Amino acid sequence: MKVGIIGASFARDAYLPALAHVPGAEVVAIASGREESARAAADAFGIPHATADWRQMLADHAFDLVCIATPTVLHAPQALAALEAGAHVLCEKPTAMDAVEAGQMLEAAKRANRLNMIDHELRFNPNRQRVAEMIAAGELGEIRHVNIANISSGWADPASRPAGDWWSDAAQGGGRLGANGSHQVDMLRWWLGEVAWVTGAAPIMVPERRDKATGAPWTATADDVAWFTLEMQSGAVAQLFLSGVAAHNVGNSTHVFGSRGTIRLDNADETLWFAPAGGEFRDITVKDPNAGLPGLNKGVWNVSVVSALREMAAAITEGRPLARGATFADGLANQKVLDAVRLSGRERRWVRPEDIDA
What's the number of CA atoms in the CB half-sphere (13 Å) around residue 333? Predict the structure, then answer.
C-alpha cells in the first residue's frame, strides 16, 4: 500500500511512527510547506521523496492512501486533489473551513468511490470504545447529560506563541473550537447520536500578543476559548468548555450521567471509572494494547492513531467499507455543529445544525 503524506509536523509525531506498525504500508513521499521540514521527516523515517510542492507530489506518484495533516484552510483543496488522483484519503480535523467545503469533500469522495476518514482517533481508544459499548448496551440507562472540560494554559501568556502561528489565525482555520472541540463533538455524536440544537460561542480572550522570539506585537484572530451546549436528538444535554488561556493546566475531563450510572474519565491518567446508581466508583479502565509499541510517542492521541491507520489500511487492502472511524459524512455533520456554535455566538441564539448550509 503506497502512502503519501501532506504536512510534516503531526506526521512526525503520530502518522509516521504509527505507519511503522501498519502491515504493508510503505510511505513513498512526503510534502510540507517548508521543504526542510519534509526532508527532515523523510530522513528520519527513510522516506525516498520529499518536497514542498504537494500538487507535484500527487502528480508524480500513484498513491493508495494520502494522509493530510496541514492547516485547516488546506484540507478541502488537498483532499479534493488527492481524491481526483485516485487515492483514498485520511484527513486531519477539523474537517474543513466550513460545512460548504466539508460537503464538497464528501461529494468528491462519493464520486471517486474512495474510502475517506477524518482523524478522530479517539474512536479507536479502548476506554472511549468501552463507554460507547456501555451506552449502547443500556448499562448507564437513559443518558441525561454529559459534561466535558478541556482547560490548558498553553496560550495564556501573550508571548507564548510565534507571530503568524496558524492555530491563532482564523483565516487558516485555527482556534480551540476546531482543534479540540471537533474531537469532542465527534465523540458525542458517536456515543449519543445527532445534535438537534446548539448554543455557544468561540471568543478570543487574549487577542493582543507578542512574538515569543522577538517580542514584536501581533494580533490573534482565532478563538482561544470555546463554550457550547448541545441538545441531542435523544434529549440528552451536553455542556462543553474549552480553554487554552487558563492560568493553570487542568487537562481534559469527561463525565457521562445516566439514569442507571455515571462514567468519569480524566486524561491526566486515562483511568475510566464507573459507578452504578447508588454504588461506588470502580476502575473499569481498558488498556490500549498498542501503547507499548516501539517508536510511538506517548499520549492517547499518538497511540490511538495506530488503530485508525490499521483500519484504513485493512479496508483498502480488503476492498471493503470502513468498519470503524469517522468518515467524511461524519466530518460534515461535525462541521455543521462547529459552524452552528460560531453562528450562535454571533447572533446570540440557539441554532439547528440541519439549518447550516452545506
Answer: 19
Query: What mean pLDDT value characterizes the chain?
Result: 97
Q: Are 6 and 70 in contact (CB under 8 A)?
A: yes
pLDDT in tens, 216-265: 999 999 999 999 999 999 999 999 999 999 999 999 999 999 999 999 99
Q: Would you say 345 and 175 are in contact if contact means Cβ atoms under 8 Å apart?
A: no
Whether residue 228 sits in one domain with residue 139: yes
Nearest to 21 by CA among 316, 293, 291: 293
The number of distinct structural domains making up the chain is: 2
Say if residue 115 is in the same domain as residue 130: no
The domain in which residue 313 lies consists of 2-121+306-326
Grid cell digits, residue 71: 492547516
Pairing of strands 65-68, 88-91: parallel
Pairing assessment for the beta strands 217-219 and 88-91 based on DSSP bridges: unpaired
Give Cβ neighbours of residue 289 (< 8 Å, ≥ 6 apart).
Answer: 126
In angstroms, rounded to a whole number, what is the distance separating the alpha carbons of residues 175 and 338? 11
Q: Which three cell numbers stand for residue 25?
A: 504500508
The answer to whether 95 touches 102, Cβ cutoff 8 Å, is: yes
Q: Measured in whole angstroms, how far is the alpha carbon of residue 5 from the centre of its chain?
A: 17
